[in-house]
Automatic annotation (TrEMBL):
<dbReference type="GO" id="GO:0005886">
    <property type="term" value="C:plasma membrane"/>
</dbReference>
<comment type="similarity">
    <text>Belongs to the UPF0410 family.</text>
</comment>
<keyword id="KW-1133">Transmembrane helix</keyword>
<dbReference type="Pfam" id="PF04226">
    <property type="entry name" value="Transgly_assoc"/>
</dbReference>
<keyword id="KW-0472">Membrane</keyword>
<dbReference type="InterPro" id="IPR007341">
    <property type="entry name" value="Transgly_assoc"/>
</dbReference>
<feature type="transmembrane region" description="Helical">
    <location>
        <begin position="6"/>
        <end position="23"/>
    </location>
</feature>
<protein>
    <submittedName>
        <fullName>GlsB/YeaQ/YmgE family stress response membrane protein</fullName>
    </submittedName>
</protein>
<keyword id="KW-1003">Cell membrane</keyword>
<feature type="transmembrane region" description="Helical">
    <location>
        <begin position="35"/>
        <end position="53"/>
    </location>
</feature>
<feature type="transmembrane region" description="Helical">
    <location>
        <begin position="59"/>
        <end position="82"/>
    </location>
</feature>
<keyword id="KW-0812">Transmembrane</keyword>
Amino acid sequence: MIGTIIAALVAGLIVGPLARLILPGRQNLSIPMTVLLGAVGALLGVFLGRLFLDYDGGPLNFWGIILGVVGAIIVVLAYGAITGNKGTDRRVTR
């Protein structure tokens, strides 16, 4: 259990910023919040992979990172919807 949480936090360092790079616009998230949402996304991605894709690995391998990024995108979008931050600042600044 503790090993899974530590692995999710380490994966959160990778998948949180990747998810923010993939999402369009600008998300107003701090670095700790990005890591936390990435860790939750990594756990969600592995859970969904085990539920739907018969995935039996952890969050720290190739498919775990891919599933974690998908999970982190879902979590970042949900966080934006809950907090009222749409996550897309499309204003052009010059």
